[in-house]
Amino acid sequence: MDILFLLVPLSVLLALSVMGVLAWAVWSGQFEELDSEGERIMMSGLEETPQALDTSLIHINKPDAVLQHTHP
């Protein structure tokens, strides 16, 4: 029971510090223009390589003969 005299004030201080950090982040502009960073990352590769437009996950480089396999 005596431990509650230590844990309750520590939990209140922790909660106040978390709210303070969140308030600082909101007031300092950390959550302004959330889309601009994502757009910057997506557009940065377009100027570098022409493959940046390809959004497929798997690239298959097989000859046409393999792709035209027919069953007897």
Write a brief structural summary.
The protein is mostly helical and 72 residues long. The chain has helices spanning 4-27, 34-44, 64-67.
What's the structural blueprint in terms of helices and strands?
Blueprint: H1 4-27, H2 34-44, H3 64-67
Order of helices and strands: HHH
Strand content: under 5%
Largest sheet: none
How many strand segments? 0
Rounded to the nearest angstrom, the distance between the terminal CA atoms is 82 Å
Broad structural category: mainly alpha
The global form is elongated
Average pLDDT level: 76
SS field, number of helical segments:
3
Radius of gyration: 28 Å
Low-pLDDT runs of 5+ residues are none
Give the helix proportion (percent range): 40-55%
Question: Could you explain how this protein is built, in words?
Answer:
- There is one protein chain.
- The chain has 72 residues and is mainly α.
- The protein has three helices and no strands.
- The mean pLDDT is 76.
